[in-house]
Design a protein that fits this description.
The protein has 409 residues and is α/β, with parallel strands linked by helices. It has 3 domains: 171 residues, Acetylglutamate kinase-like (Carbamate kinase, 3-Layer(aba) Sandwich), CATH 3.40.1160; 76 residues, ACT domain (Alpha-Beta Plaits, 2-Layer Sandwich), CATH 3.30.70.260; 65 residues, VC0802-like, CATH 3.30.2130. It is built from 12 helices and 20 strands. Strands 3-6-2-1-9-11-12-10 form an 8-stranded mixed β-sheet, sandwiched between helices. Strand 4 and strand 5 form a beta hairpin. Helix 1 packs across helix 3, helix 6 runs antiparallel to helix 7 and helix 11 crosses helix 12. The protein starts with a strand and ends in an 11-residue tail after the last helix. Belongs to the aspartokinase family. Catalyzes the phosphorylation of the beta-carboxyl group of aspartic acid with ATP to yield 4-phospho-L-aspartate, which is involved in the branched biosynthetic pathway leading to the biosynthesis of amino acids threonine, isoleucine and methionine. One of its GO terms (cellular component) is cytosol.
Length: 409
């Protein structure tokens, strides 16, 4: 008997039937004698609907007020889930993020969890209550509600599992597990039986929608195995853990991220310190930069290109334009019709020629590469957004990832 944390995403609690299905899963763990914590996201498209409501009132609301608004989606879900468990005849209590003791920094809309005060949670679990916690949210030192960024409910679940020293953390979603590519793009994608934290972290960061990257970071830090499973069937899911199979796969997956924009700072003076100037300006605004490419200097100037998320594009352009004279650049251009396609695999590090295979797949498909970024276990390319899905399928076929099966790893 131990502590089990279960997380249900928006599609898993989208309507009455799904809420009761999730409630019965929680009750089944409770019946085994376990203490159960259930983390839920906002129902279905609630968050998107709330964002639209905000736009009707104010095109550019403050991030603090957006957090106040968006946190209500999860509050609806926890109350409904608790009512369902109550209806099934079991003791239950719902808690918002702040009631559950989740304390964050003050980076509204993308806050990080600093600590979790588990006193209330432990008290409720000791009373043999099933505890339903609002995902995606916490409270900062000013007692303001904060949210953890899209997909933040995964992070809530793993953080709670770590704080409570849980025996198991299950992430229930609308897919059966972690696949070699998005099955909606690649119908013959293979489901992985297991995957390492490092590989999953790369895939999550690079656009795979299955898990929030910060949740994987936390799981790795505290060595908490995560099981990704479907909330719609009883199939075995994918285990995300410290080390996967001894024979590491050359490529474990292909990911695609369309929420990306390329920014180019043109004609920067070719002297030391200019890159630092540009990226320190962005760092002060908490803007994450991904792929960076600096051209060879010509006529005493160089161009620096990089990628940011589309949501940060306007802020990036504003900051750089305002400081154009400080940077000493001639112009700033951007493109928001790009996509990043990446391959990830722990086996890459000892196998030369992986990049060549990926580039050959893109060449055969007639797809042009704009930028390239590599690490020990990943290769990312920036391409035209209209070619994104074709690229994923071409690369997936090239590495024969459809031949993997759930017993193959």
């Amino acid at each position: 008997m131990g502590i089990v944390v279960q997380k249900y995403g928006g599609t898993s609690v989208a309507d009455k039937e799904r809420i009761f299905r999730a409630a019965r899963r929680a009750v089944a763990e409770y019946e085994k004698g376990n203490k159960v914590v259930v983390v839920v996201s906002a129902q279905g498209d609630t968050t998107d609907e709330l964002i639209e409501k905000a736009k009707e009132i104010n095109e550019n609301p403050s991030k603090r007020e957006m957090d106040m608004l968006l946190s209500t989606g999860e509050q609806i879900s926890i109350a409904l889930m608790a009512m369902a468990i109550e209806k099934l005849g079991y003791p239950v209590i719902s808690l918002t993020g702040w009631q559950a003791g989740i304390k964050t920094d003050s980076n509204y809309s993308n806050a990080r969890i600093k600590e979790i005060d588990t006193e209330r949670l432990q008290r409720e679990l000791d009373k043999r209550n099933i505890v339903v916690v609002a995902g995606f949210q916490g409270i900062n030192k000013y007692d303001d509600i904060t949210t953890l960024g899209r997909g933040g409910s995964d992070t809530t679940a793993v953080a709670l599992a770590a704080a409570l020293k849980a025996d198991k953390c299950e992430i229930y979603t609308d897919v059966d597990g972690v696949y070699t590519a998005d099955p909606r793009i690649v119908p013959n994608a293979s489901k992985l039986k297991e995957i390492s934290y490092d590989e999953m972290l790369e895939l999550a960061t690079l656009g795979a929608k299955v898990l929030h990257n910060r949740s994987v970071e936390l799981a790795k830090k505290y060595n908490i195995p995560i099981v990704v499973r479907s909330s719609f069937n009883d199939n075995e899911g994918t285990v995300v853990k410290e080390v996967s199979s001894v024979e590491k796969l050359l490529v474990s997956g292909v990911a695609c991220d369309k929420d990306i924009a390329r920014v180019a700072v043109i004609g920067v003076e070719n002297v030391p310190g200019k890159a630092f100037q540009i990226f320190s300006l962005l760092a002060k605004e908490n803007i994450n930069v991904d792929i960076i490419l600096q051209s060879i200097g010509r006529e005493k100037t160089k161009d620096i290109s990089f990628t940011v998320s589309k949501s940060n594009l306007k802020q990036t352009l504003d900051v750089l334009t305002k400081n154009l004279h400080v940077i000493g650049a001639k112009d700033i251009t951007y493109a928001d019709n790009v996509a990043k396609v990446s391959i990830v695999g722990a086996g890459m590090v000892n196998n030369p020629g992986v990049a060549a295979m990926m580039f050959e797949a893109l060449y055969d498909a007639g797809i042009n590469i704009e930028m390239i970024s590599t690490s020990e276990i990943k290769i990312s390319v920036l391409i035209d957004e209209k070619d994104a899905e074709k690229a994923v399928r071409a690369i997936h076929d090239k590495f024969k990832l459809h031949l993997l099966n759930s017993n193959g790893k």
